[in-house]
Design brief:
It is a single chain. The chain is of the alpha+beta class. It is built from 3 helices and 10 strands. The strands form 3 sheets. It has a 4-stranded mixed β-sheet with strand order 7-4-9-8, with helices on both faces. A hairpin with a 5-residue loop joins β2 and β3. α2 crosses α3. The longest helix has 16 residues. It is globular. The chain starts with 9 loop residues before the first strand and ends with a helix. The model has no long low-confidence stretch (mean pLDDT 96).
């Protein structure tokens, strides 16, 4: 194992340099483990939940969504940010219904991961949702998604071929695949 005391940096000062609707950017001065000083710029993020719906026949449902920073449509698992004070499961239930029109009777915690540790404190909580029922899609006014159903194994093939390249979707699908195999 590693000795984390030999790696830990201490914050000397922290200054918020941008305060947006979703993201808050900070510039911190830190003392490094060897006693020297450096600067760390990082993004404070509220966290998010990603959901992998699993239908009785083994299908899953992904969404197509245009992502402005990359200027393209990505295949993604349903997901969304945590509202202030909201627990990840509540977020997952809300986002699954909003983005896909699905409701799940059973929720299985797959586990959290940190998607961009070099510049953000974001954590994404992954859940598998089972015993699915269909209802109506109710996306936010500024959100445009197109849900589509496919066999779970096809989604895994799309990960390995690179057709699915969104990090949260890759991790969510592969970790759910592992969970399904252990079940």
């Amino acid at each position: 194992m590693i000795d984390s005391d030999k790696l830990t940096e201490e914050t000397k000062s922290s200054k918020e340099i941008y305060n947006g609707d979703l993201l808050h950017v900070f510039r911190d001065e830190v003392t490094l483990p060897d006693g020297s000083n450096s600067v760390r710029e990082w993004i404070k993020h509220p966290g998010a939940t990603a959901i992998v719906p699993i239908f009785k026949n083994g299908d899953t449902m992904l969404i197509g969504q245009y992502r402005y920073p990359c200027k393209k449509v990505f295949y993604e698992v349903p997901a969304g940010k945590l509202d202030p004070g909201e627990d990840p499961l509540t977020t997952g239930k809300r986002e699954l219904t909003e983005e896909t029109g699905l409701v799940a009777k059973k929720w299985h915690e797959i586990g959290p991961f940190y998607p961009c540790i070099g510049y953000s404190d974001e954590v994404i909580y992954v859940y598998a949702a089972t015993e699915i029922e269909e209802t109506e899609i109710n996306v936010d006014d500024d959100e445009f998604v197109e849900p589509f159903r496919l066999p779970f194994e096809k989604a895994i093939e799309m990960v390995h071929s690179g057709e699915i390249s969104d990090g949260k979707t890759v991790i969510s699908l592969l970790r759910t695949e592992h969970w399904l195999k252990k079940k």
